[in-house]
Predict the structure.
Amino acid sequence: MSVLIAPSVLSADFLHLDREIEMLNESDADWIHVDVMDGSFVPNISFGFPIVNAIYNVAEKPLDVHLMIDSADCYLEEFAQAGATWLSVHYEACPHLHRTIQTIRDLQCYAGVVLNPHTPVHVLEDIISELDYVLLMSVNPGYGGQKFIPQTIEKVKKLKKMVEAFNPDCLIEVDGGISTANAAEIIAAGADVLVAGNAVFKNEDPKKIISDLKKLG
Ligand code: DX5
Ligand code: ZN
């Protein structure tokens, strides 16, 4: 399978989201990555259900909704209704992760768990068989445009071994500081899905960057 590219709309022009989503529709992007931040779990606030739903209404690609929020259980149904196809929650924010994952699956979404840079992959050993994907943060969540944390490469390799042993269908997604300069190494380590915010939307030819990233896989 070639690598999947999930541009993050956090770096898009919010005043012209329709144009930005139209660009993604015309591009080689596979998913549209949507970052939801609550100002509590992470020190930033992005947007909520109306924006996710507005994106969904014009998007021709599945929405990959990354919840950086506390009390995610209270909001899963609304994000599913707003249009999430892929829905991920943070390991660090979910004390009853197994139940949360079952709820996401009951809502007919693909279920993912996100690990912060300091969280080791072995914490997923007893839940990996239940997951459709794991998202490894390669920056501290909260902001676009940060620098890729190099230790992520080893984490991807470790996770790849776990996935191959216990759930080969589980996808590995990596998020933060990804560009054409480091994407090949991340893919070689075992990543199936790359998120890219600034690299795509701050470039004068976003569609070309998306194709360039895709060609690396
Ligand atoms: C960070 C978000 C990322 C962010 C990535 O908290 O989860 O999805 O938008 O942006 P870049 O690619 O600019 O690091
Ligand atoms: Zn994200």
Q: What stands out?
A: The beta strands are 4-7, 32-37, 63-68, 84-90, 110-115, 133-137, 171-175, 193-196. Residues 8, 10-11, 33, 35, 66, 139, 141-146, 175-178, 195-199 surround D-xylitol-5-phosphate (ligand 1) (CB under 6 Å).
